[in-house]
Amino acid sequence: MESLYLLIPLSIVLVFVIAVIFWWSVRSGQFDDLEGPGYRVVSDDDTPPADARAKAPDPGRRPAP
Fold first, then answer.
1. Rounded CA gap, 13 and 10, in Å?
2. What is the pLDDT of residue 9?
3. Are 56 and 48 in contact (CB under 8 A)?
4. 30 by DSSP, 3-state: which?
5. Contacts 24+ apart (CB under 8 A), 23-29
6. What pLDDT score was predicted for residue 41?
7. Splitting the chain (65 residues) into consecutive groups of 10 residues, what average pLDDT does each group show?
8. Domain locations in the chain as residue ranges
9. Alpha-carbon distance 8 to 51, whole Å?
10. Where do the segments described as Disordered lie (predicted)?
């Protein structure tokens, strides 16, 4: 019986912590796009990102002597 005095408040605190974590994840956009990351993994896009193209040297340009 004495263990209930510990377990009931502990379970209430645990439910509160889980609710706060769930609320934070919904507010921060974790559940906005559930299918997009799965499609991005299997998409066949071989072009590098725009910032990588800007930093890459031009293959047709000769190096300075």
1. 5
2. 96
3. yes
4. coil
5. none
6. 77
7. 93 98 92 82 72 62 62
8. 1-26
9. 54
10. 37-65
According to DSSP, residue 59 is labeled T
**Closest listed residue to residue 9, CA positions, set 29, 17, 31:** 17
The answer to whether 50 and 44 have CB atoms below 8 angstroms apart is no
Question: How many Å apart are CA 25 and CA 27, to the nearest integer?
Answer: 6
Which residues make Cβ contacts (< 8 Å) with residue 31, sequence separation at least 6?
A: 25
CA–centroid distance for 13 within its chain: 27
**DSSP-H helix ranges across the chain:** 2-27, 36-42, 50-55
DSSP secondary structure code for residue 65 in this structure: -
Burial of 62 (0-12, 13-18, 19+ CB in 10 A): exposed
Which residue bears the tokens 């609710």? Answer: 19
